[in-house]
Amino acid sequence: MEKIMAILTGEAAYARELAAFLSSKEEFLYKPVTFTDVQAYLRFERENSVDLLLCDRGMEPGERPEAPKKICILSEYSTVGEDEGGRGSIFKYQSSERLMQDILSCLGTEDKARQIPRRPKLSDPAECLGFAVPAAEPASRFRLIGVCSPIGGSRCSTLSLALADHLAGKGATLFVSMDPFFSLNGSREPEARDLSELIYFLETHGAEGAPELADYVRADGGADYIKGPSHWLDLENLDRDALCRLARLIGNAGYECAVFDLGRPQTAATELLRICTDIYVTRGKTKHDEAVIAEWKRQLKASGMAEIAERMIERTVPTDRLFADGVPERGMLLTGSLGGFVKEVVDFGYFG
């Protein structure tokens, strides 16, 4: 009898992509069936024996006779393990291969010798902010950093790039800027494929295929980067999960870290912040700037996104004589006060 694994999530594209990947793997012996509606799933469950239910937190059905043999929660946070009900919990946004292994582990069928090291808990700042993996151990954690601010001119892009360049010295890192007016080394590289084209591909192709990330990535010393959007209108009305899908694509490409310069976050950027391991908010130096950030946090909490507000690390980007004529050249970013600040944050977990 064929074994069935049901995927119940509010993200239709995510469910389709995961089901397509698992179906392509001969070693995965379960038939994946996807649902975005709880009632539709319950109707299916009454007529079929479900061996495993993977579902978003908050979508798990109540007690019933036809309950699956195993329920596993798709967590939007990097904590994995078991919840108070004894149900397994795995990180939702990671590479497809690691996700499959976590599913097999949840089922108790994974070879223990092949288990992937678990992701750090967000409650442990030392684990979140440091590369705690020993040098002899292959890097298996995808660190996702979001830098944003509701305040213009707070050097959000500058801090993002500096963080990315410093982290590039520790492992493969990709820098992504949502700012259409931010350019590296003063060049817009008109011949290069940019973020606008990549997001358009992701939104129009769904689960039918993934783009070759290498076609969009540029290298110019420091972190690799994707050229920013070609026009600010390209960022209007993005799908809610557009940037989350991009983050998964980056993780699947083998990067250990991605730094997103989100600027003033809109809907898609806010969805990405939900799954970031680190959230930095650049602030200004005036009382008005403090009031703006306080109001933004209030609105996040009122919108059911208190976890984002609570995990924000607010910092004023330090400047010195290097910034006298504007933002310094990329090769100078990690010198002076900014370089010292970035190294303290990344290497020692300094929040200040």
How would you portray this structure in words?
Helix 7 (242-252) packs across helix 8. A hairpin with a 5-residue loop joins strand 5 and strand 6. The chain has eleven helices and 13 strands. It has two domains: 3-114, 3-Layer(aba) Sandwich (Rossmann fold), CATH 3.40.50.10850; 125-348, P-loop containing nucleotide triphosphate hydrolases (Rossmann fold), CATH 3.40.50. By secondary structure, it is of the alpha/beta class. The strands form two sheets. A seven-stranded mixed β-sheet has the order 9-10-8-11-7-12-13, sandwiched between helices. A six-stranded mixed β-sheet has the order 2-1-3-4-6-5. The longest helix has 16 residues, at 287-302.
Name some characteristics of this structure.
352 residues; 17% strand; alpha/beta; 2 domains; Rossmann fold; six-stranded mixed sheet; 11 helices
Please, what is the CATH homologous superfamily of the largest domain?
P-loop containing nucleotide triphosphate hydrolases
**Helix coverage percent of residues?**
25-40%
Secondary structural class = alpha/beta
- The count of domains is 2
Average pLDDT taken over every residue: 78
Q: What is the alpha-carbon Rg in Å?
A: 21 Å
How many beta-strand elements? 13
Low-confidence stretches: 110-140
Could you describe the largest sheet, including whether it forms a barrel? Answer: 7 strands, mixed
CATH class assignment of the largest domain: Alpha Beta
Q: How far apart are the first and last residues' alpha carbons, in Å? A: 58 Å
Percentage of β-strand residues: 15-25%
Helix and strand pattern: EHEHEEEEHHEHEHEEHEHEHHEH
The order of strands across the largest sheet is 9-10-8-11-7-12-13
